[in-house]
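Before a colleague's protein record goes any further, I have to sign it off. I want your independent view on whether this chain really folds as the tokens say. The record follows directly below this note.
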Amino acid sequence: MPTDFDKLMDHEYDGIREYDNPTPGWWHMIFLSTVIFSVVYYVFWEYSPLAYSVQEAWRGKQAAYFKKVFGAYGELKPDEATVLQMMSDETMMLVADGIFQSNCAACHAKDGGGINGVNLTDNSYKNVKVFGDVLSVITKGANNGAMPAWENRLSQNERIIMAAYAAKLRGTTPLAGKGAEGVEIPAWPEAPKK
């Protein structure tokens, strides 16, 4: 007993004739679901502030790993020589980058160019007169709380490598940096020889 699904079609190809069987409804539902999912997926990854890139995910995992390695350095001395030494330590700069992106980028931008915080990439500084002031500003804060004090939020080691990271941003080129604020200060001192 033939049904509507068993009707032979009129055309023939190489002696082969086919039935006119429509695609099942469940297949249409799966196809429609994938189209809807792709639109939501595209909008999220292209326009959402919650979206992240592969590089950012990798950097976060790498920073978490290096934080475990952090213990091998022991307690760092909060002095100029240690901060200068940390500036050339690639491992610690990767850890500092993760800390910077999660705590400082909201004000200073991801590349240090400044949003509502100061531009860390130029030669002019508002609260830093000498190299040692970088660690002091991170630890104690500045501008009546506009720059928060991090002494109760970050460990001493984290503050030291953050000072090194902030100092290392000087002379880099941000995507869209703020104009110079404060006064121009001399170049950072050379790192001590090992």
Q: What stands out?
A: The first helix runs from residue 25 to 47. DSSP finds seven helices and two strands in the chain.
